[in-house]
From TrEMBL:
The chain crosses the membrane at residues 6-24. Pfam families: TatA_B_E (PF02416). The keyword Lipid metabolism does not apply. It comes from Streptomyces buecherae. HAMAP family: TatA_E. One of its GO terms (biological process) is protein transport by the Tat complex. The gene is tatA. Coiled coil: none annotated. It is a single-pass membrane protein. The Tat system comprises two distinct complexes: a TatABC complex, containing multiple copies of TatA, TatB and TatC subunits, and a separate TatA complex, containing only TatA subunits. Substrates initially bind to the TatABC complex, which probably triggers association of the separate TatA complex to form the active translocon. GO terms for cellular component: TAT protein transport complex. Part of the twin-arginine translocation (Tat) system that transports large folded proteins containing a characteristic twin-arginine motif in their signal peptide across membranes. TatA could form the protein-conducting channel of the Tat system. Residues 58-75 have a biased composition (Pro residues). This is Sec-independent protein translocase protein TatA. Residues 47-93 are annotated as: Disordered.
C-alpha cells in the first residue's frame, strides 16, 4: 500500500510549494529562524539529559509510605452499609 510513499520528486514538490508560499525574500529569514529554533531545542535537550543524570545522585532517599488505617472487620462494614439503606423505601413498579 505504501510501497512508494516517499520519492525524491515528492521532496522537490514540497520545496517548490514552500518557495511559492514564503517567497524568495522570506526564505533566508525562515531558514535562519528554523536553525535557531533547532539549536535551542538541542541545547535544552542536552540540559535536561544532564539534569536527569545528576538528579538520582543528588536526591535524598525516599521514605516508605505511611501505613494505611486498619480496615474494619467484615461485620462492621455490613452494618455501615445497612444504615445507608434504611432511608431508602422500596419502589414498586
Amino acid at each position: 500500500m505504501f510501497r512508494n510513499a516517499l520519492q525524491p520528486w515528492h521532496l522537490v514538490m514540497v520545496g517548490l510549494v514552500i518557495a511559492i508560499v514564503f517567497g524568495s525574500k522570506k526564505l533566508p529569514d525562515t531558514a535562519r529562524a528554523l536553525g535557531k529554533s533547532l539549536r535551542i531545542l538541542k541545547s535544552e535537550a542536552r540540559a535536561m539529559r544532564a539534569e536527569d543524570a545528576a538528579s538520582p545522585q543528588d536526591a535524598p532517599p525516599t521514605e516508605a509510605p505511611a501505613p494505611l488505617a486498619p480496615t474494619p472487620p467484615p461485620g462492621e462494614a455490613t452494618q455501615v452499609g445497612d444504615r445507608g439503606r434504611q432511608g431508602l423505601a422500596p419502589s414498586n413498579p
